[in-house]
From TrEMBL:
The keyword Mitochondrion does not apply. Pfam families: ABC_tran (PF00005), oligo_HPY (PF08352). It is found in: Cell membrane. PROSITE patterns: ABC_TRANSPORTER_1, ABC_TRANSPORTER_2. One of its GO terms (cellular component) is plasma membrane. This is Oligopeptide/dipeptide ABC transporter ATP-binding protein. SUPFAM superfamilies: P-loop containing nucleoside triphosphate hydrolases. Keywords: ATP-binding, Cell membrane, Membrane, Nucleotide-binding, Transport. It comes from Nonomuraea jabiensis. Its main location: membrane. Signal peptide: none annotated. One of its GO terms (biological process) is peptide transport.
Length: 313
């Protein structure tokens, strides 16, 4: 397995952990979705794969990349993991690039510094990568500054940079959320193309369950730092088993769906809210008294699991 997260718990001073006992896996050539509302812990998980933990945080469990535990490896291995095995793509391409440096510098500096390429080699590779992500006139792009490119073009540059070291695993953290609809569709098509061509494993993070269901092979739904449902994307979409998953599907708009949107009442809990039982119970339309005391555990359902007492019953 390319990435295997096993019972990962991360605490950073709140009354409850940011992530609690999270497990998921990404295989070669597989796109795995991680979906949840703001604050559910998605970015914390992605960053933990690179051992970028919140300041002062403690972590338990294991994060294995190609069988090696990221949380336990020495600094040298960690540097090599970050330089070549795993690449992260963030939400806003403009925040990834320095506005006063040329696109070419952004692409080549990392190749020179962390991969030990010569400047000429790095430049040639940058041209090749920009062409591979569908940017015309790559030589011109290298000489330009970020403000001279559109958001969509910049996200292509960011994807090119992520591919520079031939990583096996891509972490895409809301990689298309800041883009307009057309550019989003183009960037998704590009991500899928490079992923399939290179048989990359991809952890695709989004707050949009409809998007995850259409883009990913398998989806994990995160709520208040715990995985509440984990299923093949199609099954999750057609027959959600956890009330939170069903709620997310009912409250996100889909084009041409005439049904009225039904927002989930209330708000996700903060790190200072604690609960003895199911964390979703206070917002759950189907909750019964006993849910407040049921300690969440994965219950086997078709294709995966759902952590819901009503599913277990
Ligand atoms: N360095 C930190 N110290 C303390 N708490 C943190 C730190 N980083 C994140 N958190 C808290 O951890 C929780 C999860 O944050 P995270 O950014 O992982 O969520 P997210 O699901 O990615 O949300 P968003 O979609 O808004 O980015 C939040 O309550 C956040 O306030």
């Amino acid at each position: 397995m390319l990435l295997s997260v096993e019972g990962l718990t991360i605490s950073a001073g709140g009354r409850r952990p940011i992530l609690r006992e999270v497990s998921l896996a990404v295989g070669k050539g597989e796109i795995v979705g991680l979906v949840g509302e703001s604050g559910s812990g998605k970015s914390t998980l992605a960053r933990a794969v690179l051992r970028l933990l919140p300041a002062g945080a403690s972590a338990s469990g294991r994060v294995l990349v190609s069988g090696e535990d990221v949380l336990a490896m020495d600094q040298g291995r960690l540097r090599s993991l970050r330089a070549s095995q795993v690449s992260m793509i963030y939400q806003d391409p403009r925040s990834s690039l320095n506005p006063v440096r040329r696109v070419g510098d952004f692409l080549t500096e990392r190749m020179v510094h962390t991969l030990g390429r010569s400047k000429a080699e790095a430049r040639a590779r940058a041209v090749e990568l920009l062409a591979a992500v569908g940017l015309r006139d790559p030589e011109l792009r290298l000489r330009q500054y970020p403000h001279e490119l559109s958001g969509g073009m910049l996200q292509r540059v960011v994807v090119a940079a992520a591919l520079a070291a031939d990583p096996a695993l891509l972490l895409a953290d809301e990689a298309t959320s800041a883009l307009d609809v057309t550019t989003q569709a183009e960037t998704l098509a590009l991500l899928r193309e490079v992923q399939a061509e290179r048989e990359l494993g991809m952890l695709f993070i989004t707050h949009d369950l409809h998007l995850a269901a259409s883009f990913c092979d398998r989806v994990h739904v995160l709520y208040a730092g715990t995985v509440v449902e984990s299923r093949p994307a199609k099954e999750l979409f057609e027959d959600p088993r956890h009330p939170y998953t069903a709620g997310l599907l009912a409250c996100t708009p889909e084009l041409d769906d005439p049904r009225p949107l039904r927002p989930i009442p209330g708000r996700p809990p903060s790190l200072d809210d604690t609960f003895a039982g199911c964390p979703f119970a206070p917002r759950c339309p189907r909750a019964e008294d006993a849910c407040e005391e049921w300690s969440p555990r994965p219950v086997t359902v078709s294709g995966g699991s759902a952590a819901c007492r009503l599913v277990e019953a």
